[in-house]
Design brief:
The chain is α/β, with parallel strands linked by helices. It folds into 2 domains: 3-133 and 192-226, 3-Layer(aba) Sandwich (Rossmann fold); 136-190, S-adenosyl-L-methionine-dependent methyltransferases (N-terminal domain of TfIIb, Single Sheet), CATH 2.20.25. Helix content is 27%, strand content 37%. The chain has 6 helices and 11 strands. The strands form 2 sheets. It has a 7-stranded mixed sheet. Strands 6-7-8-9 form a 4-stranded antiparallel sheet. Helix 4 (67-75) links the parallel strand 2 and strand 3.
Length: 227
């Protein structure tokens, strides 16, 4: 099991449903300004955003590096694959990466990712993503929390230092014989300075908006057009 698959198994215990819905609403409002017919959701998760865009008449495809997430998308009849965006077929009017997807990459991986995004956009295509601000990492994401239900217990310990957030997930799942299976892994996220996004070959940053998801100015929305 990859660390992203562990995150997928534990996501429902994190209490992020309201924040996710708020992000979906924000992205949809931004996309309303553009006449798009096709959309690629990179880091699509369980496909919630695709479902909403399909209801708006947009043809959607999703990719995610968690096979757990992709399997759930497919079970709901969505077009999703567990592949890297660089090998996605075709091009799209719009591409989105919702809820910190860019923060899961270091600088070099991020540049390669953004080059791949540019190659998958149609002319005049738009790419929208959100990232954590430094405040979002140090004052919102850092810390410990736990959550449980009758069958699961989750512990999360997040520490932010040297522009990296290291989050250790420990999940216990109850078995039929009342024993528990333990899953544990660490996910690393990276703080990115804005200058990285202002010097890209294939994408032009046309707008950025700092907003509040959990607290004051903890997120930044980035909007790019294909050069």
């Amino acid at each position: 099991m990859t660390n992203l698959d562990l995150y997928a198994k534990a996501e429902h215990l994190l209490g992020i449903e309201e924040a996710t819905e708020a992000l979906y609403d924000l992205y949809r409002s931004e996309l309303d300004e553009y006449k798009i017919k096709t959309l690629l959701d990179v880091g699509c998760g369980r496909g919630g955003f695709m479902t909403r865009m399909i209801s708006d008449g947009v043809t959607c495809k999703g990719v995610d590096l968690s096979s757990v997430m992709v399997d759930e998308c497919k079970a709901d009849g969505l077009d999703a694959e567990c592949i890297d965006v660089a090998v996605v077929d075709g091009t799209y009017d719009a591409i989105v990466s919702i809820f910190d997807v860019l923060n899961f990459m270091d600088k070099d991986s991020l540049i390669r990712f953004l080059d791949a995004i540019a190659s998958k956009l149609n002319d005049d295509g738009i790419f929208i993503a959100d990232i954590n601000t430094r405040y979002g990492f140090s004052d919102v994401a850092e810390g410990t929390m736990s959550s449980e239900n009758e069958k699961e217990f989750l512990s999360v310990d997040a520490q932010f230092a040297n522009d990296e957030l290291h989050t250790k997930f420990t999940l216990f799942e109850k078995n039929k014989d009342d024993t528990y299976t333990k899953y544990q892994d660490t996910i690393v996220q990276h703080f990115h300075k804005m200058k990285i996004f202002q010097k890209l070959d294939g994408l032009k940053l046309v707008d950025k908006q700092t907003f509040s998801l959990y607290d004051t100015e903890d997120k930044t929305l980035l909007i790019f057009k294909k050069r």
